[in-house]
């Protein structure tokens, strides 16, 4: 177990589940549960929560936690015979006691590496040996970075194929006052219409009913503008060409046992994903997918979205 310090604390969360708290000196923090390898909280320097976590979330394995950032692997959705969104989000991950340093982000001290490997039980469902390493890092500026490395460790010479998503639930003040920039005019597969392909029309995306779309070949930068709070989430991604936008709206909200009837007003999922073209890895090969989220005052970002200027800081 990594030594305890002011930046990384290992402790117990709800129902005694193991969790890791990351802290930065200006007051930023993030929490990660080993169950699901799931970020459940990300706070700014005013200790305001930036991610949505349902009041009805069930912290009881094997039910995945409703909110935060679930990891969808080895599949996004329920195309295959596998469980919906794969099994990574409802398995117990372990902590790497001796993670490699943050080479590209040397000033970042608040980070943890979680690992998920196939188990004998899993091999019956998905007959592949793998290692999934998730690094969750909180930068001194309060940005939240997630890096996943998936390695094929099969010993039978077989390749495997998967899809993936960071299923991020952003906390918003009022969904009807939210707009998403960076996805306009793109093609998407509509989950509400059997994944039929359409083209997004108009300016930015706004919300007045249920939305469940997989945007294809998206730019590496997407902005989620919360008008009421005058703040913008900026999502940067790498290795994840698609972006899923989901809000269940009122009817679906009522049908979900672990989600409040009115909670759809306070959340929006924008998910950095790789869905349309699944990844295939040969034994020994590794894939890497990153997402970086930050929050800025809205005036800074609105109208200035230029995907070509995206640079990853780590
Ligand atoms: C989204 C999907 O990513 O996740 C939706 O596009 C789905 O179709 C939603 O309803 C929630 O899934 P779950 O399994 O967590 O209820």
UniProtKB/TrEMBL annotation:
Pfam families with a match to the protein in the record: Aldose_epim
Keyword list, A-Z: Isomerase
Presence of keyword Isomerase: yes
Tagged with keyword Flavoprotein: no
Residues annotated as the enzyme's active site: 167, 271
Protein family (similarity comment): Belongs to the glucose-6-phosphate 1-epimerase family.
InterPro entries in alphabetical order: Aldose_1/G6P_1-epimerase, G6P_1-epimerase, Gal_mutarotase_sf_dom, GH-type_carb-bd
Entries under Gene3D superfamilies matching the protein: 2.70.98.10
One GO MF term attached to the UniProt entry: carbohydrate binding
UniProt EC number: 5.1.3.15
Gene Ontology terms: biological process: carbohydrate metabolic process
Reactions mediated catalytically: alpha-D-glucose 6-phosphate = beta-D-glucose 6-phosphate
The protein's enzyme class: isomerase
Organism domain of life: Eukaryota
One Gene Ontology CC term in the entry: cytoplasm
Stored SUPFAM superfamilies: Galactose mutarotase-like
Name recorded for this polypeptide: glucose-6-phosphate 1-epimerase
